[in-house]
Amino acid sequence: MNAPQSAPDFVRIEEVPFVALRLHEVVGLIIRRHSEGCGGWVVTPNLDILRRMMLDRSFRALVNSETTLYTADGMPIVWLSYLLGTPLPERVAGSDVFVELVAEAARSGKSVYLLGGTPGVAEVAAGILLERFPALRVAGCYAPPFGFERDAEEMAKIRRLMETTRPDIVFVGLGSPKQEQLIAALRELLPRSWWLGIGVSFSFVAGDVKRAPVWMRKVGLEWFFRVLQEPRRLFKRYFIIGIPFAIRLFARNLLRRMGLPPKE
Fold first, then answer.
1. Spatial contact of 198 and 46, defined as CB atoms under 8 Å apart
2. Which of 21, 145, 224, 242 is placed for a possible disulfide with 25 were both Cys, Cβ 3.0 to 4.6 Å?
3. What Rg value do the Cα atoms of the chain yield, rounded?
4. Of 206, 160, 179, whose CA–CA distance to 73 is shortest?
């Protein structure tokens, strides 16, 4: 992992070093480091991404080799930090980083690119953000077609877009692991830019996917709200895979906190 100069403290959960910063501190760090000429990559694991990092060695190696900052996207990760006696100050979700970083980019004159999402959604989100922040510099928007990662011409097109527009900050909204794989493939083109995988965040801003009320986010129920909206797509992820994984994860770390060997 490439740690920034004057690196903040980190909290290790399953060997993932989560940055112990609040949302505004993460945003400020990104802006400051970019102004100093340093790029980076922010990964915002929730339980689904953490599970993938624990089970898929190739994915973990891909992400660990380049990531500058990990932030805790899910409340269960924050709860785990308390269980381990090394509490994170707060949840720093990718969707919140997206909006706050766009606002700060507008204030500091940095350009942003919205890459991903379903066709047309990034453009709608960009329009809404420009209404909120008229000084925002949107370098471009592009939604790659399904299967783009297996299409050499499409990947070449995305590279050309990045090289031509040269944004300061690139938001990639494709879901995991596709967004991380794309960022890893593109980062070398713009080493001084900041890259963030932010999942469905374009749709939250555009309004075609409703985000959970603040109280649900605070008590760790945002995932349940998402399932209610998209049960066919998300039921298996959260109920069949996610909840059993969370139970095992908390049990494993409780044993670790008690000084007992965790069960594999």
1. no
2. 21
3. 18
4. 179
Q: Which residue has the tokens 């959604």?
A: 121
Q: What is the pLDDT of residues 155-189, one digit of tens each?
A: 999 999 999 999 999 999 999 999 999 999 999 99
Enumerate the domain spans of the chain.
10-206
pTM above 0.90, yes or no: yes
Mean pLDDT of the chain: 95
For the domain covering 10-206, report its CATH number.
Answer: 3.40.50.2300
Exposed/middle/buried for 57, CB within 10 Å: 0-12, 13-18, 19+? exposed
- Report d(CA 16, CA 45) in Å as an integer: 9
Token pair in block for residue 85: 């006696």
